[in-house]
Amino acid sequence: MTKFIDLTLSGISIGAIYAAVALALVLIWRSTRIVNFAQGAMLMFTTFIASAVINGGGSYALGLVVALASGFVLGAVVERVVVRPVENAPPLNAVILTLGLYTLIVAVAGMIWGNTPRSFPAAFSLRGYRVGGTNLLFTPNDTFIVLVVIGVAALLALLFRRTTLGLRMRAAAFAPEVARLLGVRVGRMLTLGWALAAATGALAGVLVAPSVFLGPNNFDPILISGFVAAVLGGLDSPPGAVVGGLILGLALSYVSGYEGSSLVPLAALVILMIVLMIRPTGLFAATRERRV
Amino acid sequence: MLTLEELTTDYGPIRAVDHVSLEVPEGSVTAVLGANGAGKTSLLRTITGLVRPTSGRVKIEGEDITRWAVEEIVRFGVAHVPEGRGVIAELTVQENLRLGGLWRGRDAMPLREIYELFPRLEERAGQPASRLSGGERQMLSIGRALVGRPRALLLDEPSLGLAPVLVAQIMSLVRRLADTLGLAVLLVEQNARSALSIANRGVVLNLGRVVIEQDPHKLAADDRLLHAYLGF
Fold first, then answer.
1. How many CB pairs under 8 A join A and B?
2. Above pLDDT 70, what percent of chain A?
3. Using the beta-carbon criterion (under 8 Å), do A182 and B102 form an inter-chain contact?
4. B40 touches chain A (CB under 8 A)
5. For tag attachment on chain B, is the N or C end more exposed, with fewer CB atoms within 10 Å?
6. Is A167 at the interface with chain B, CB within 8 A?
7. Partner-chain contact A184 B71, CB within 8 Å
8. Domain count of chain B?
9. A285 occurs within a structural domain
10. Is B218 a domain residue?
11. A183 touching B, CB under 8 A?
12. Residue A287 has pLDDT above 80, yes or no
């Protein structure tokens, strides 16, 4: 029973990180219909920046803030400079472009910081809680991860549902031409969407770095899991991304705990295949428009 | 006053709008008629900047807005209700309406005034627009255009897919809006007789050109012309 509780709590913690990555992918997908294959590289790069700040004597909090800010700026720059020219081009152009961007960022990171993985500090202790004489695997840092991701998801939900800025962003995402006809500056909204997505990704990078180490290619599996979580929840649905992340985190945690960690990547792909076969639009896909 | 001067739009080698000149004064309705492919929708899309014209000018109150960005044209007071109504299905009715006036800030028309015009929308305010019927969507798209207090209103086939009784209601409303709000209305329609019944001016487009511009009642009575250009 203790093992089950351990795996469940670990699953929620890693699921929160998948949820953050999935949120980053979903925010971009629903605004520009692009799967950002460079997301893993972008969050790796901003985590390296956080690492540089912390190693330079800055606090963890400062490193986190700098990572979020640099993610925000990186997302905005990528949208304006790289993505904007192909937004109306065939979808394959954007796929190739984000793959190229991934390669570029990984190469640049390797040139700046080297290819040897390095450690990254955690915000809080990595020693598991002790409950009733039993040491759990769930740590104070895991609590921090879950709370931060829930907080960010709640803030994004508030932004989109309760503010005029969020309303403009949703309109720009759902119907760009109509939004322009209503005076919405769609270009700015798309830039902001990319910036928020990249900042959310940057958060995931800082949160996961203590457990995967920091290297140019160390975040690739996180991107795959985040993508599966996004598809699981429905690529168009931010709440779906959060739920998808948690479900995937739990499922992979159980697979890892009971069947062995070597099966985790395979399990993620099997889950992806099952979802695509049974409910290709994901668990939280938007309801279909009424035909009139 | 909405003024078009020799407006011309090309899609590659195809000329969609061919040297169209029109004046639509405040408080008037100009019905633009034509068969499919006549260039009606392209004309409206050119006016609001969704398509860049090859040559010619678009003016509002004498201000040349031809090369402005779509958002700036809208913010200058041109509201465009696109073909297919342009309701954002994923947003609620109220959110759709609010969007229409966000750029206006506090000067936007209060939603209660829209609900007075369209009580049905108030009943459905919290529902997703995807659940609306065709007539309700048309009300929503027109109401949303009004929230920004426009000077000119461009309507693209508002009667499309609606029952005759709803078409009559919508046309009567358009006339009322032009009269009470002083709007310059450019009404693109295939439903010629309905549009002409409320218009101050009738214009027939054929292959992008204005081939007839005359009194709407004379135009409606001329079966030969309507048959020649509109197919009935």
1. 75
2. 97
3. yes
4. no
5. C
6. yes
7. yes
8. 2
9. no
10. yes
11. yes
12. no
B-facing residues of A in 203-262 (CB < 8 A) are: none
Q: How many CA atoms lie within 13 A of A107 on its CB side?
A: 6
**Closest chain A residue to B71 measured between Cα atoms?**
A183
Alpha carbons B161 and B148: distance in angstroms, whole number: 26
The distance of A27 to chain B (nearest Cα, Å) reads: 15
Say yes or no: B157 and B223 in one domain: yes
Residues in chain A with CB shorter than 8 Å from the CB of B109 are none
Q: Is this complex's ipTM strictly greater than 0.85?
A: yes
Domain-located, residue B215: yes
Tell which of B45, B46, B68, B99 to mutate to test the A interface (max A CBs under 10 Å).
B99
Residues B126 and B193 in one domain: no
Alpha-carbon span B183 to B148, nearest angstrom: 12
**With contact defined as beta carbons under 8 Å apart, do A179 and B91 qualify?**
no
Which residue pairs, CB below 8 angstroms and at least 24 apart, start in A47-54?
A47/A120, A47/A202, A47/A205, A47/A206, A47/A209, A47/A214, A47/A219, A48/A109, A48/A112, A48/A113, A48/A214, A50/A120, A50/A202, A50/A205, A50/A206, A50/A209, A51/A113, A51/A118, A51/A120, A51/A209, A51/A214, A52/A113, A54/A120, A54/A121
| B57: containing domain | 1-77+153-169+185-232
- The CATH number for B203's domain is 3.40.50.300
Q: Residue type for A148, please?
A: V
pLDDT at A292: 41
- Reported pTM: 0.88
Residues of A (271-290) whose Cβ lies below 8 Å from B: 286-290
At residue A291, the pLDDT reads 42
B99 neighbourhood in chain A, CB within 8 Å: 167-168, 171, 179, 182, 184
Please enumerate in sequence order all residues whose Cβ is within 8 A of that of A144, keeping only pairs 6 or more positions apart, or say none. Answer: A123, A124
Question: Is there a single domain that holds both residue B53 and residue B96?
Answer: no
What is chain B's alpha carbon radius of gyration, rounded to the nearest angstrom?
A: 17
**CB of B103 within 8 Å of any CB in chain A?**
yes
Report CA B199 to chain centroid distance, whole Å: 13
CB proximity A118 to B under 8 Å: no
